[in-house]
Amino acid sequence: MAFNIELPHVGESVTEAVIGKWLKAPGDTIEKYDPLVEVITDKVAMDVPSPATGILTKIFATEGETVLMGAVIAEMDTAEEVVVAPASTQSATSSPSASRIGTLVQGANVGPTGGAFLDTSLSTPEPTPATSDAGKGISSGSRSSLTRKKGFSPVVTRLAAEHDVDLDSLIGTGLGGRVSKKDVLAAVEHRRVSASTSYPRGIIAEGEDEIIEPTPIRRMIADHMVKAVSEIPHAWSAIEVDVTGMVEWRTANKERFESENGVRLTYLPIALSVVAGALRSNPRLNSSWLDGKIVLKKAINVGVAVAADGGLVVPVVHNAADATVTELAGVLDGVVPRSRSGNMTIEDVRGGTFTLNNTGSLGSVWGGAIINHPQAAILTTEAIVKRPVVISNGGNDDIVVRSMMNICLSFDHRIIDGAEASEFLQSVKSGIEAISSDSDLR
Question: Which of 133, 322, 417, 438 is catalytic?
Fold first, then answer.
């Protein structure tokens, strides 16, 4: 039986990926879950496994090509009976269907990527002819209005048509010299600048300046950061929190906690527990803007930003508001090292509804983070520092040394106003300041 293999959906915020390298060629016999092709998105770099045992017959997407999620990238012959579910839009909290070809990505080898996330709705193009790296299996197929022209991706073809750009005149800077969306936008900007002035603009490299060619991952991060900032009207708010009690509790319980649970006790699971609880009582912060409407997310899935060698990684802690501090510490103890070593799974990055960014671990004391599109907000917990604080005591003001931490919120002003942002911040503040050395945190 012949069936089409689709590029798997990583999550609602990712709509396209770059084909990195085909690991199999037409004619190869493949076992179910064998690595089939390497793909790169703004969230993960992963090996897509074969959804069945059989023979790879055709390849439709070439290496270096940008392809829409859900698009057909190859064809297989198999003796297995495979039920293909009809395409449907998945919410951020829904699990991928195991019956959908190309959606099940068990055993994927996932590497670190990150950045702000793209969220658009595009139709899936018809497959177009492609040749594998091994030079075998040139296939034939029809082309629609969104299909590739001379190997150009649907996104590039459509963008060029919108701005009347001749793709044949461009020199590609993408993988394998392919023309990327960035190249088209650069051509549009160059034309605009040329029409308004004859003087050159931009940064000129000269002398001993070093020019670095961004990796595909860094290019996608850059594009999606621009997307997030240009589409989301960011607003910011910040307050200081007295974390003396939290520091004392961790100091008093660290050795016992780690001995009993076998995981490190940092401040992150404590803060995450409080933030998740605050999201439950402030649902606007756990939402998205979609087609002019506000979507309140039922699940509270908090992404935790992690710095890794390949870029920013945002693994997701699912149903964080229902977990104890001990459970959260266990989850983080597993997912953070996986993130840094490049061994995340699709489940690790799926379905985030809010992001917690622990920039304090980097020494930051104040910052305004970029929201992870299409989420509504991102909170940064800054460095804990000791400083003198005025405390009112029975009508008298005393100056004491306390452990203080700033928390900074970036929020989508289409969804959240200053009053709602302040309510959320005060909820987090009161939750953290309620912790003392004798608190029963489990």
Answer: 417
Between CA 376 and CA 383 the distance in angstroms is 24
What tens digit of pLDDT does each residue of 334-358 get?
Answer: 998 888 887 777 788 889 999 999 9
Indicate the domain borders of the chain.
Answer: 233-433
Per-residue DSSP letters for 290-336? ETTEEEE-SS--EEEEEEETTEEE--EETTGGGS-HHHHHHHHHHHH
Name every residue whose Cβ is closer than 8 Å to that of residue 148 and which is 6 or more positions away in sequence.
65, 125, 128, 154, 157
Tell whether the model's pLDDT for residue 280 goes beyond 80.
Answer: yes
Fold type of domain 233-433: Chloramphenicol Acetyltransferase (3.30.559)
Please name the amino acid found at residue 299. Answer: A
- Residue pLDDT, tens place only, 90-138: 333 333 333 333 333 333 334 433 333 223 222 333 333 333 333 333 3
User: If you ran DSSP here, which 8-state letter would residue 317 be given?
Assistant: E
The span from the CA of 31 to the CA of 80, in Å, is: 11
Please compute the mean of the pLDDT values over residues 403-427 and round it to a whole number: 98
Is residue 190 annotated as part of the catalytic site, yes or no? no
CA atoms within 13 A on the CB side of 82: 25
Report the distance separating Cα 110 and Cα 348, nearest Å: 10
Annotated catalytic residue: which of 77, 234, 242, 413? 413
Query: Counting every residue, how long is the chain?
Result: 442
Q: In whole angstroms, what is the distance from residue 336 CA to residue 47 CA? A: 20
- Respond yes or no: is residue 224 known to be catalytic: no
CB atoms within 10 A of CB 157: 20
Tens of pLDDT, residue by residue over 303-327, are 999 887 767 788 999 999 999 999 9
- Token pair 């379905």: residue: 351
Distances from the Cα of 113 to the Cαs of 44, 224, 309, 366, 394, in angstroms? 5, 12, 9, 24, 53
